[in-house]
Structure formats: structure tokens, C-alpha cells
DNA sequence: GTATGTATTAAACAAACGTATGAATAAAAC
DNA sequence: GTTTTATTCATACGTTTGTTTAATACATAC
């Protein structure tokens, strides 16, 4: 427990860490306050309830991260002028503030990342309300940016690919223990730059992939010769 | 609550549903038993404890799903003989048993999918132990299959891309509420076939994407002209 | 000094939690 | 039939939960 900060900050820091380790329902207020070295009632004094504490833990980090996302996107678009911003640059603006939150959260092994990655799969109206409030504008801006970069792709397909990208990112944030276990030390999860480069390459390829010929029909022929796809197919629905 | 099945099955069905809706720590045994219409003590009688119930809820579904995954992969490899199985077919064998678990879980809106998708981001030794036990062989088999399809890609990169694919899949399973909210009804999340086709296309493109020229160096030039990638680059590390 | 508003503390609250017990009931074996 | 085994039941146990209360300490203002 750190002792230099205020009571409020000590509660937030330890709540963030413990929520990431044990989940929300798995972390009691007593565990948080004793780890922070403050009195139990301090939580209900500085925050109204446990729900409000959860909300504050999220928005404290999410707000500056989303601000940086939008700032990076703005910079890309201003630099491009009337030209298009590449998919790769849009993906980077979306991914980097989360994968490398310098200046926002303390460095090192970041409980914030585990927590944010887990947020997507967390049940309960509480977390979902927070998410929608903080993410609505970000999602809209990046959807538009991808749409401008890929004008031939229909809007719903853009959203699906953004969805998959968020999934790959969230998984990288929250579940890096899986690849550590399965790879047996072959994959270095502490290398933030390597993670970002790999994730960006994967997501860009997926977002730029050609449209299936019949998105809503029966499944495509299961055996297609491998190799790089050639071009975007024309859509026939919507 | 269904009344036709045995007590054990009624507990498992309702536990699966409630765990998906509220999480493990957020679901009490009393909520499960009252929803199932059985006595509270039935849980500790048929299963040893809540932890064992969680384990049983998972393995009941995960075992046949993984069996089907391996069966599909076996079928692909037998059919191919000495030839290579395409990345797309391997991805399908990995993804389809989860996205369309016909014959394994009851049809309709599947709590199983939400639960399995959330499993990846769930903390606690309990879930992780279950996961590793059930998934170790599956991960090994599919890693080898991808490696055979893409011999130029180094093993750790294969694992990273499998990791991202799992992330996109898990997100599609557990967090479809996000794309429903953000798209405002534009994306049909009830169309299982459409989900599978889009996910497969995205993952195949990501897995087959060219290697970055310097995987461990500083970040690549942020502005690269858009358009489809050309070929796999030669790796220079490992 | 006294007053005033803020922050911390120990203690208690009712409610809900997972688990255990022993009696009652149903089913099966003999 | 009786005995034995498997299952269900109401009930209770000891903890732990989030929240509240009333008292105390500590500032700064007057």
C-alpha cells in the first residue's frame, strides 16, 4: 500500500488492483480498505457505495485514455488534410492508448489493462452503463474513420470488424495468462511494443479483408485455396 | 425452470444460465436452486461444493465441443491426405463448434456462449485450471495445423495470431451486447451463420497477414499506403 | 479563544453467503 | 414383507457482505 497519496487515491489504486485480480463481486470493501490502510467506512464516505466506487475506478482511467484516442485520431486527420487516413493509423490511434497508457496509469504490470480488458465481458448493468457513457463518442468517431478509409465496405461490416478488433485487443489486455501458459514462455507478453505491432498487423489485415461474396447466404465453400486475397468483392445486401 | 429433467440437470441448466447473466460470485446457490425448483442442499449433495458445480457446468459443454473441434480437424487432415489444410478450414474447425453448438447445447439464445466467452477473462484459479485441463490438447493440435499451413511464420507468431483469433471469437460470444448497442440494430447478432462467416474472414486475413519487417524493433512507420498486403515477409528473428 | 465544516474512527446493523446436519421420503434389493 | 440405499427436505451454523451510525480528531475561519 502506498502511503503518500490521499485516502481517496489509496482506495482507488487498491480497488483497481484487487478488482483486476479477483473481480468485482470477488473483492470485498474490507479487502480494499485493509490493503489501502484506511478505515472501512472511508469507502462509503468518499464514494457513495461500492457501485459508485467501481464507476470511479473505471472513469478515472477511461476518460484520459479515450481523450488520447480522439486526440491521436484528430492528429491523423488533420495531417492527412483532404486525403484518407490509412486503416493502420486508425487502428494505432485506437489501440495504443490502451496498450501503452503512458502518463495515464503507472508503468509496470498494469492492473488497469486487465480490468479494462475484462470490462467487456463483465455482466451487470453497472459496468455496461459506464462503458456506454464513456465509449459512445469514441466508437462513432472511429467507425466514421474506418468508413472513410474503406468506402466500399458497408457500414455494418465496418462495425463487425471493429467489434472483432476490440475483441482481439481486450483478449490481449485481459487474458495474456493464456498465451503465457500455452506457449510455455515462447511468447513474451511483457513486450508492449511487440504486442502492439502484432495486434495492429492482425487487425489491419482483418479490417481490410475482402468481403465474402454472400454475407448472409449459406456457408461458403469450405475449401478455398490459400494465399492472399485479391480485392474487395461487391456487396449485394444493404 | 424445466421440470422434465433430473435434479442434477436442472441445477446445471439454471446454473449455466445464471452464471452467464450475473457471473460466478454474483450468483448464489440459493438463486440457482430456487430457479431450478430444487432444495438448497441439493447442490452440495449432487456436487461437492460451488466450485465443483462451476467445474461441472464448464466441462459438461466444453468436453463435447472440443471433441467436435478435434473431429473436424481430423476430417480436414484426412481429406487433405499429404496436402496442406487451408488456414480457413482450420479456423472453421476451431470456431464453428463454439459459434454453432448444435447437438451439444439447446438452441436459441445460448447462455453457454456468453459463459464460455467470459471464461477467458474470468479471474480465479478455479476457472483457469478447468480451462487448461480442457484446452491444452486442442491448442496444441490447432497450433500445429496452423504451423503446417503457414510454414514461413515462426511458431511464436502463430501463437500470437491464434491468441488474437480466440480474442475476437470470445468477444463475439460474450459481448455481443456491445455491437448491438453501438450499431443501433444495424448488426444482426442473432444470425449465427453471418457471425461465423464474418469472424472466419476476419481471422483468416489476420492469420495470413504478412509478418512485420521488424517484429521486435521500434514501431513501424505509421503511414503506409493502404491496400492489400502483397506477400509474407521473411522473418529475421528466432 | 470559539465555532464550523471536513475527515477519520470503532462499532454495530440486518441481510446474504456457502456449507452441514439429521430427519423424512422414495426407490431398489433382497 | 423387510432392509438397504439414494435422494429430498427444512433448518440451522458460523462467516462475510455492504452499509450506517455516533463519536472523535483535525483542520481552517472567525
Could you please describe the fold and organization of this structure?
The structure is a homodimer of 238-residue chains. Chain A is mostly helical. Chain A folds into 2 domains: 1-47, Orthogonal Bundle (Arc Repressor Mutant, subunit A), CATH 1.10.10; 59-207, Tetracycline Repressor, domain 2. Helix content of chain A is 64%, strand content 0%. Chain A is built from 10 helices and no strands. The first copy, chain A, has helices at residues 7-22, 29-36, 41-46, 50-80, 87-99, 111-119, 125-149, 155-174, 176-183, 192-207. In chain A, helix 4 runs antiparallel to helix 5 (87-99). The longest helix of chain A is centred in the N-terminal third of the chain and has 31 residues, at 50-80. The radius of gyration of chain A is 21 Å and the shape is globular. Chain A starts with 6 loop residues before the first helix and ends in a 31-residue tail after the last helix. At the A-B interface, helix 1, helix 5, helix 7, helix 8 and helix 9 of A face helix 1, helix 5, helix 7, helix 8 and helix 9 of B. The first copy, chain A, binds a DNA duplex (30 and 30 nucleotides) through residues 7, 28-30, 38-46, 49-50.
Q: What is the strand and helix layout of this fold?
A:
2 copies of one chain form a homodimer.
Chain A: H1 7-22, H2 29-36, H3 41-46, H4 50-80, H5 87-99, H6 111-119, H7 125-149, H8 155-174, H9 176-183, H10 192-207
Helix pairs in contact in A: 1-2, 1-4, 1-6, 4-5, 4-7, 5-10, 6-8, 8-10
Chain A binds a DNA duplex (30 and 30 nucleotides) through helix 3.
Amino acid at each position: 500500500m502506498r502511503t503518500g497519496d490521499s485516502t481517496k487515491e489509496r482506495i482507488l489504486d487498491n480497488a483497481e488492483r484487487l478488482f483486476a485480480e479477483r473481480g468485482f463481486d470477488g473483492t470485498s470493501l474490507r479487502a480494499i480498505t485493509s490493503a489501502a490502510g484506511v478505515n472501512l467506512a472511508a469507502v462509503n464516505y468518499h464514494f457513495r457505495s461500492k457501485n459508485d466506487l467501481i464507476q470511479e475506478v473505471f472513469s478515472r482511467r477511461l476518460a484520459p485514455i479515450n481523450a488520447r484516442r480522439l486526440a491521436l485520431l484528430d492528429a491523423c486527420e488533420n495531417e492527412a488534410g483532404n486525403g484518407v487516413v490509412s486503416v493502420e493509423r486508425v487502428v494505432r490511434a485506437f489501440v495504443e492508448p490502451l496498450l501503452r497508457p503512458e502518463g495515464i496509469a503507472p508503468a509496470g504490470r498494469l492492473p488497469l489493462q486487465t480490468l479494462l480488458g475484462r470490462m467487456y465481458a463483465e455482466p451487470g448493468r453497472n459496468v455496461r452503463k459506464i462503458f456506454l457513457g464513456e465509449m459512445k463518442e469514441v466508437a462513432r468517431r472511429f467507425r466514421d474513420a474506418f468508413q472513410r478509409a474503406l468506402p466500399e465496405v458497408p457500414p455494418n461490416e465496418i462495425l463487425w470488424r471493429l467489434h472483432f478488433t476490440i475483441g482481439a485487443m481486450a483478449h490481449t489486455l485481459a487474458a495474456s495468462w493464456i498465451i503465457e501458459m500455452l506457449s510455455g514462455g515462447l511468447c513474451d507478453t511483457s513486450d508492449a511494443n511487440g504486442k502492439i505491432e502484432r495486434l495492429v498487423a492482425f487487425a489491419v489485415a482483418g479490417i481490410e479483408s475482402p468481403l465474402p461474396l454472400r454475407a448472409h447466404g449459406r456457408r461458403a465453400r469450405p475449401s478455398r485455396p490459400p494465399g492472399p486475397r485479391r480485392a474487395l468483392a461487391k456487396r449485394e445486401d444493404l
